Amino acid sequence: MTTEQVQADCRIAFTQWGLPDAIQTDHASIFVDADPTPFPTHLTLWWIGLGIEPIRIPRHTPKRNGGVERSHRTLNERTLIAQHFRNAAHLQAQVDADWTELNTACPSRAGDCHGRPPLTAHPELALPRRLYTPDQEAALFDLRAVDAYLAQFTWVRTVNAHGQLSLGRQRYGLGRAWAGQTVSIQFEPAQRTFVFTVLLSRPTAGLEAPPLITRPAQGLSATDLCGTIQPVSVPPQQLSFPRWLFDPFADSAPA
């Protein structure tokens, strides 16, 4: 999935449930840059700007995200297996209907639900603590939080033969004197610049790189990180099939 697709899905969830305190993920490339000193992805920085903490589980430990893995299994068994859908909209309507029923009507085996549906056991989940609507996202987004987050890190990159390097999907030109140099990079929030400092000097014939150089940050404005914000409609969900098809012992099952 692309960043834009995940943002669109998040906006639907945020509109219905409110902004979460944190989002836990694995190390897929959309969440984490593969470099040894990874630069935060746009999706991560978007969450930071909305006051959402990104949490990564250790690599190769899917059990640490057990709730997500179990929900995938539930979706597959309940909604997808042996079913046919006319199009993506038809599938989405059924997914929404099934999750609504699971949350509101079906007993849960979760320890603190005590056999009750999740929203019966925890009605507070239906009352967002931090309200969100797409039309208010620009006002909610805090670029200063993004800057403070970036200021914590140091990145290491090697400058190519043309005096350039890549950082956060952006290309920065430092000049031919920097060709072949290994540099450390830090974000300076007051000026919103990156500071490049030579770590391992490899002098270019006839040229000498200065000990440090700054470049304006690229691709990190609120507009860049939020992208295109589309209106979100979250209508009440109606079941496409009667509940007794999934639970023949339900009270509503026909005699």
| Average pLDDT, all residues | 86
Report the end-to-end length measured between terminal Cα atoms.
45 Å
Instruction: Let me know the largest β-sheet.
Output: 4 strands, antiparallel
What portion of residues is helical?
25-40%
Indicate the low-confidence ranges by residue numbers. 235-255
What is the count of DSSP helices, taking H or I runs of 4+ residues? 8
Level-2 CATH architecture of the largest domain: 2-Layer Sandwich
The first-level CATH class of the largest domain is given as Alpha Beta
Side by side, the strands of the main sheet go 3-6-7-8
Strand segment tally: 8
Q: Find the structural class using helix and strand composition.
A: alpha+beta
CATH topology of the largest domain: Nucleotidyltransferase, domain 5
